Amino acid sequence: MSEVKLRLIQQHELSQALELEQRCYSPEAAATEAGFQYRFQEYPSYFWSAWSDDGRLLGIANGIRTEQESCGDEMKGSHQEEYAGDNFCILTIAVDPAFRRRGIAAKLLDKLIQACENERLKAIILMCEPHLISFYEQAKFTYVGKASSSHGGIEWHEMRRNLHTMEHSSE
Questions:
Q1: How many structural domains comprise the chain?
Q2: Nearest-angstrom CA–CA distance, 161 and 139
Q3: Which CATH number belongs to the domain containing residue 153 in this structure?
Q4: Which residue range or ranges hold the N-acetyltransferase domain (predicted)?
Q5: What's the pLDDT tens digit per position in 36-53?
Q6: CB 3.0-4.6 Å disulfide test: which of 7, 75, 91, 157 passes with 63?
Q7: Partners of 146 in the β-ladder
């Protein structure tokens, strides 16, 4: 594998993305087909994918916009309809186990951050497993605390990254 190509996912590739999600998460924690369809239909500019030169899907990243200040269990299943919320909740960053520790997750995360900054969102929020806290801290996320969620039987921790939005005063 020489180069990883990052791009927005296409609808006909959602089944591959779901298969990757299901390889990376337990059945109780993995997104559903309906969840992926919803994220793709409502937030297509936030559904990133990473591909090898030979066309293999290596990683995905996606989520939803929200007014919520934390990513609760309600965002993991049936999504609230807050299409223009000021925050973005990352719901998936998944990399094929055979291709981890090569910077793919960091590149996908950077694409999500860029998309959120371009939309002038207030913050990015997420829940992660304990072993991923330092990964997100390296990307300038702040540890918020242990989440009340136990989605999929996992111990989740909340992280947050406030985005740099410039406020202009009018005279």
A1: 1
A2: 9
A3: 3.40.630.30
A4: 4-164
A5: 999 999 999 999 999 999
A6: 91
A7: 157
